[in-house]
Amino acid sequence: MTDKVLPTQSGNIAPKPEKKQSEELHVYALMFGFVVLLAALTWIIPAGEYQRVKQGGMTKVVAGTFHTVPANPQGIFDIFAAVVKGWEQAANLIFMIFFIGAAIKILEETGVIGAGMTRLVSNLKGKEMYALAIVTLITSFGGAIGVLANSVVALMPLGLMLSKALGYDEAVGLGMIYLGAYAGFNVGWANVSTVGIAQSIAELPLFSGLWMRVFFHLFNVVIIIAFLYLYCKQIKQDPTKSLTYGLDRPAASTINGFGEVGEFTLRHKLVTLIVLVGFGAIIYGSMKLNWGISHFSIAFLMMGVAGGLTGGLGVNGTCKAFVRGLNSIVFAACVVGMARAISVVMVEGKIIDTIVHYLSLPIGSMGPVLGANMMYVVNIIVNFIIPSGSGQAVTVMPLMVPLADLTGITRQVAVQAFQFGDGFANCIAPTAGTLMACLGIAGIPFDRYAKWFLPVLAVQLLLGAVAITVLQMIGWQG
């Protein structure tokens, strides 16, 4: 097939210029657009606050104390200041991502990743779907007990490596680790930071209603595994359907795996041992030692340095690989700061409490079934402005408990409406720093991810509404 041609003024024939493809909106532009939009809303939405009291280790909202305060509309200078403050407030997470990228690059240059993944490919030949399901199920249990929340970012490199070993793209790695963990976290039956706090505020026994939530967890993870299974079949049949197709690194090279590499040497085995010890320390520290983001950064730094020196890179080689790793992960790290800037502009403009207050008002005029579903909707919306599960619990639950008592909604259902609303939105809210960090590490643009995951989210939200309706109709007390 020949190109269409046009005559030039000199009579020669010139090719017809091809139509330029529209360029995808950069995620930084998308995040900054949200900041600008919310800054504009601070000029429209009245500023307001609730009184808060300190009880033990929690700062809770006092129901019925909402009042207006002097407005603090955000101007042009404040918009840019919100970006800077967002990066400052997210500094711990940003630097953890830097250390992850640096450590992985060092390990990659020792040759251990290529050699190890190639060996894993041969061992998993024909068992790819079993591996996918098992890893997703394991991470979901980590999320259900609250171990894998922000710390899931630290496990993303393992998921991406495993996905390549299985012959799939970065989206499958994201699915096994992030979507798997949050399939459990979003309906977690032993998650102290969400359902635990919500039940304590609602004066319910800790983790009451356990078996119903275990059922929700298992049902939810089956949905995620089925979604990933169908996606894997799709990209195997047509690699152009990959979520990473057409990006800077073509999806075809990603899906083909690592190819042939040299022998798995003694050095490789020692570096592998260092990696296993490092990730073992991260998991143990999360479960038993209450490790936070700074501890994960230390673990990755130690893993990278020890791996580089043991793997034969030497001091200079390890340092050069470290810098190359930092360079490769800049985009992923800094997008977290851009996401945090959205929250900053709402806090500075004093509109978060106002939004929560007016969202909660219609619930009191509805019957118990509609009211419970309205609680669910309100919590979905609030999650976009308060992405922290514990932060949302201490803000929303003190308002929801008296409303539940007034309208005949059981307190256990009110807790479930909070948990579903807070949980499902975690996987789509652009203000969720953990989501944005995982997308950045995987190299997947937010708009592509959102379009890919929205059908699953729609199913989850619909089933959540059905569950809330049935639980309220049977008067579920847990």
Low-pLDDT stretches: 1-21, 250-261
Largest sheet, in brief, is: 2 strands, antiparallel
- What fraction of residues sit in β-strands? under 5%
Report the order of strands and helices.
Answer: EEHEEEEHHHHHHHHHHHHHHHHHH
Instruction: Going across the biggest sheet, name each strand in turn.
Output: 1-2
What is the rounded Rg?
Answer: 24 Å
The computed structural class is mainly alpha
Extended strand count: 6
- How far do the termini sit from each other? 68 Å
What's the number of structural domains? 1
Specify the helix fraction band. Answer: 55-70%
Shape by Cα distribution: globular
Mean pLDDT: 84
Total of helices: 19
Pfam families: DcuC
Subcellular location: Cell membrane
Transmembrane segments: 25-45, 93-117, 129-159, 171-190, 210-232, 270-287, 293-314, 326-347, 424-446, 452-474
Keywords: Cell membrane, Membrane, Transmembrane, Transmembrane helix
Task: Please outline what is shown here.
The chain contains 19 helices and 6 strands. By secondary structure, it is mainly alpha-helical. Helix 7 packs antiparallel against helix 9 (210-237) and helix 13 runs antiparallel to helix 18.
Molecular structure report:
It is a multi-pass membrane protein. The chain crosses the membrane at residues 25-45, 93-117, 129-159, 171-190, 210-232, 270-287, 293-314, 326-347, 424-446, 452-474. Keywords: Cell membrane, Membrane, Transmembrane, Transmembrane helix. Its main location: membrane. This protein is globular. It is built from 19 helices and 6 strands. The longest helix is centred in the last third of the chain and has 35 residues, at 314-348. A two-stranded antiparallel sheet has the order 1-2. Strands 3-6 form a two-stranded antiparallel sheet. Strand 1 (5-7) and strand 2 (13-15) form a beta hairpin. With 478 residues, it is mostly helical.
